[in-house]
Structure formats: C-alpha cells, structure tokens
Amino acid sequence: MTETPQDLLAAYADLVRDEATRQNLVSAASLDAFQTRHIDDSAQLLDLAPPGGRWLDIGSGAGLPGIVLAILGAEVRLVESRRLRAEFLAHCIETLGLKDRATLHAGRIETMETERFDRITARAYAPLPKLLDSAVRFSDRNTVWILPKGRTASSELDTVRGTWQGEFRVVPSRTDADAAIVVATNVRQNVRRKEPR
Ligand SMILES: C[S@@+](CC[C@H](N)C(=O)[O-])C[C@H]1O[C@@H](n2cnc3c(N)ncnc32)[C@H](O)[C@@H]1O
C-alpha cells in the first residue's frame, strides 16, 4: 500500500518522539504540540517560494524543516554537524523512503563542497549575519532564502542592512503570532569602496 504524505508525517513524528528518549532533539514541551510547532511550522515554508527547485537546509537537527519538506515532495540537502543527530536524519531518510529526494551532509556547513541551491532555509541555526556568511556561496541572485526567525526577524534584518544587499521581506508566521520568516532574493555582500587617498 502506498503511504500518503500524512502517513509519512505521522511516522516521522513517531520517529522523533522515540529518538527523543535517547537524545535531545527538540524541546520536551514542543513534543506535545508536534503538529503545529514543527510540522506546520516547517510546511508553511513551501508556500513562500515557487514550487520545485533544490533546497538546502542548514542545521537540520531533528529534520526541521528538511525532512518535513522532503516528505511533502521537495528535493532537499540536509546539513547537520552533530553526529547523533546526523545518524538520526540518515535513519529517517532510509525509514521514510526519502532517498530519491533527501540527501545528507553529515558535517559542518563549512566543510560542504560548494554547489548552487534554488532555496536556502535554516531554522534556529544561527543569527542572520553568520547564516548569510556561511551560506552565501550556495546561492546566486535567483536563490530564494526562506529563514524562520521567530520574534527577532526584523531586528536581525536591521543588523545586516549595512553589510548585505538584497530584496528582503518579513512574512508573519502562520503558526506563531509573534514569529516571522525572512524571505530574500538576490542576496549579496556590500562591496566596500576603497577610501580615496
Ligand atoms: C538549535 S538546532 C535547530 C535544529 C532544527 N533546525 C530545528 O529547528 O529544530 C541547530 C542545529 O544546527 C546544527 N549546527 C550548528 N552549527 C552547524 C554548522 N556549522 N554546520 C551544520 N550544522 C550546524 C546543530 O548541531 C543543531 O542541530
């Protein structure tokens, strides 16, 4: 029998709950509200870019948002530096039958070979300056960045305005009234002009 995305999302939630008894994956409180706090929170990102394209998910942790996006049909490269978490992600990819669209870099993003992605996401991985620094080499002017930023979206954006250019907007989260998602394209570092002698 073919499993629907809903079956796979339920199976994924069970895998996380089970693994959470062995390692710290997500906050214990959020396990009780897994659908809203994690599944819906991740799934909403798909609506913020045109369909299709290859996604890069940096600091995937338990697989959020990367595994959810892959279950929902996206092609995703997950990046996770912690060994136990990376092993869990490999287990999810195998068990949920996602090998045709999810791949894993089990290591730091800094060690991943440069390639271009159509979409870049990262949830709770790093503040915007570090996130842009570590990921810009995987982007080009058409890459859509979709970055859930909780309550700090606007203030984090303010911190990069002097050093980064691009078309940035802040979109309210559908799952948390206080949270927002930074969506950007054509992201590039400001070129510093040489001071005249
Ligand atoms: C706070 S967790 C968030 C996990 C997940 N994205 C979520 O929203 O639940 C951040 C994750 O980023 C990973 N991480 C931190 N620095 C990293 C790096 N340089 N490269 C790859 N992963 C990194 C950590 O191991 C951790 O699993």
Automatic annotation (TrEMBL):
Q: Give the record's keywords alphabetically.
A: Cytoplasm, Methyltransferase, rRNA processing, S-adenosyl-L-methionine, Transferase
User: Where does the record place it?
Assistant: Cytoplasm
Q: Which domain of life is it from?
A: Bacteria
Q: Does Signal appear among the keywords? A: no
**Where on this chain does S-adenosyl-L-methionine bind?**
G59, L64, I109, E110, R123
Which Enzyme Commission numbers does its entry carry? 2.1.1.170
Q: Name one GO cellular component term.
A: cytosol
> What does it catalyze?
guanosine(527) in 16S rRNA + S-adenosyl-L-methionine = N(7)-methylguanosine(527) in 16S rRNA + S-adenosyl-L-homocysteine
Which Gene Ontology MF annotations are present? Answer: rRNA (guanine-N7-)-methyltransferase activity
Q: Give the protein family.
A: Belongs to the methyltransferase superfamily. RNA methyltransferase RsmG family.
Q: What does this protein do?
A: Specifically methylates the N7 position of guanine in position 527 of 16S rRNA.
Q: Which NCBIfam families match?
A: rsmG_gidB
Q: What is the protein name stated in its UniProt record?
A: Ribosomal RNA small subunit methyltransferase G
